[in-house]
Write a structure and sequence with these properties.
Blueprint: E1 9-14, E2 34-35, E3 38-39, H1 40-49, E4 55-61, H2 65-70, H3 75-80, H4 85-91, E5 99-105, H5 110-122, E6 127-131, E7 134-136, H6 142-153, E8 156-162, E9 172-179, E10 184-191, E11 202-210, H7 213-220, H8 231-240, E12 244-248, E13 253-255, H9 259-273, H10 278-288
Helix pairs in contact: 5-7, 5-8, 7-8
Length: 291
């Protein structure tokens, strides 16, 4: 098995249809919706710079060409703002900081199929996997700690967070086996459990580091009746072989899974980035208390 002392490759899954955001997502992918003043995908890539990710693969469907265009150099804007450093930085390509490659999924075939596609491009290298509708507020260097966990224990590791019972039907939830100070050995993982049958309140937040073992377990997984292969099934297989860890995050995770959570997360993010803006707080207070 190929092992590295660090993780320098990331993958962002952006292949979904964004049906909960229709009709907007007919032309604008959910991952390109703004979070305050930048697209969600841009902010995810910003967070990868802090852990020295060198290359990022973005998995998209063929109707999301706008994402590809966003990360191309715009010669017209470069020329217009060449003498204005602030605007030039905003319009400059992220490719100058992280090498970005695109992988196309012909049709929705599930998260498991998405990860299977990666083997051709990544080979045996471990990679940081991020779902494109979540944003981690990485104030506590959680991503660095996650990478350190992978290097220390040499197992695939998921980022988990304690959630409320009311959120259980939206996440995959782990059952802990062995709990250490900086690590949890995962006994099993259940997708969207009912409140009465959930093995814990520790939910997989759509962020994790996977090694090449994942491909073997994905190849064994069956395709569901809807034509999709689920990553959760392969993670469960890893857990059964005691090859899956979890690391608990204490950072805020902004959820953009549906319209309501998108707007609530956007408001939270805006407030967090403008804590000293008294005028903004006054305006929000007026809106909240408006009769």
């Amino acid at each position: 098995m190929y092992m590295e002392k660090t993780v320098n490759t990331a993958v962002i899954l952006c292949g979904g249809l964004g049906t909960r955001f229709l009709p907007t997502t007919k032309v604008i992918p959910k991952e390109m919706l703004p979070v305050y003043n930048k697209p969600l995908l841009h902010r995810i890539l910003d967070s990868l710079q802090s852990i020295n990710i060198k290359k990022c693969y973005i998995l998209i469907s063929k109707n999301k060409k706008i994402i590809v265009d966003y990360y191309k150099r715009n010669k017209y804007l470069d020329k217009q703002f060449s003498d204005n450093d602030s605007f030039y930085d905003l319009t400059h390509s992220m490719n100058d900081k992280i090498e970005i490659k695109f992988i196309y999924q012909d049709k929705p075939q599930g998260t498991g199929h998405c990860v299977e596609l990666l083997q051709k491009y990544i080979g045996d290298r471990p990679f940081l996997l991020i779902f494109g509708d979540n944003l981690l507020d990485d104030k506590n260097n959680t991503l660095k700690k996650l990478c350190a966990n992978f290097v220390k224990y040499k197992k695939s590791v998921l980022l988990v967070q304690k959630i409320n019972k009311s959120q259980l039907n939206r996440f995959s939830v782990i059952k802990p086996s062995k709990i250490q100070k900086d690590n949890i050995l995962v006994d099993s993982i259940v997708e969207k459990p009912l409140a009465g049958s959930a093995p814990s309140l520790l939910a997989y937040m759509g962020v994790g580091i996977l090694n090449c073992e994942i491909y073997y377990h994905l190849h064994k997984c069956t395709t569901h009746n809807n034509g999709e292969k689920y990553l959760t099934d392969a993670l469960q297989s890893l857990a059964q072989n005691q090859r899956l860890n979890a690391f608990v995050s204490k950072d805020k995770n902004y959820d953009f899974g549906d319209v309501d959570s998108y707007f609530m997360s956007n408001i939270e993010f805006m407030i967090d980035k403008n804590k000293n803006n008294k005028n903004l707080k006054r305006q929000l207070y007026k809106l909240i208390n408006k009769k």
